[in-house]
Amino acid sequence: MKVEIYSDIACPWCYIGKRRFEQALDRFPGKDGVEVVYRPYQLVPDAPEQASPHRAWLAERYGPQSVAMDARVTELGAAEGIAYDFDAALHANTFLGHRLLHLAETEYGAAVQADVKERLLKAHFSDGVDVGDRTALTAIAVAAGMDGERVTGYLAGEEGADEVRDQLDRARSLGITAVPTFVFEGRWAVQGGQEADTFLRVLQQVAEETGALVPAPGTGPDDSAACADGSCAV
């Protein structure tokens, strides 16, 4: 089973969704047969290359409610083991980070890509790192086991940029307008940072539909549970 997760590095719900999906996958009997790949999405594609304080940017965009928004996400993230620090977080353009994730997938595989994704999210949301900075991105890549010289040269040029743009276009062609969006086998989609139990039901349902897993009696999910938000079909 292939799961493509469309998400942005600067999306706090993508961090929560990643953790919850991983919890579900760890409980899924067929987890060894699931390939997880991260696909790019940019919530603010025109964000400037020069990073700025997250709090100021969010307040300008959403007004007074921005404080409550961050507080709510911080509370939910803590339950998933995520330490959000929005006072330190920087608003940055994430295109370079998505290029790095593309390189990680194509040259190192899905496991390394997932590691880089986790490190990027932590750097952005917990450590106050500018994830649009090439030096910072290279350090993250090296920590995940990637070759530093290769990454430095890659980010200095335009390699992979067209491929990432094509993937961003594909997200739009699929009708994805919010993230995270989880696409299963290119046929079913679930939007949002759902609870782990919901993701587990979806994994089970897709496995049944594709013949990848035979459910134990009485354990199969129903459509309403897996698609409660009405966004399960691409």
From TrEMBL:
Gene3D superfamilies: Glutaredoxin. Residues 3-204 form the DSBA-like thioredoxin domain. CDD domains: DsbA_FrnE. It comes from Kitasatospora arboriphila. SUPFAM superfamilies: Thioredoxin-like. InterPro entries: DSBA-like_thioredoxin_dom (IPR001853), Thioredoxin-like_sf (IPR036249). It holds the Pfam family DSBA. This is DsbA family protein. PANTHER family: GLUTATHIONE S-TRANSFERASE KAPPA (PTHR13887), THIOREDOXIN SUPERFAMILY PROTEIN (PTHR13887:SF41). Coiled coil: none annotated.
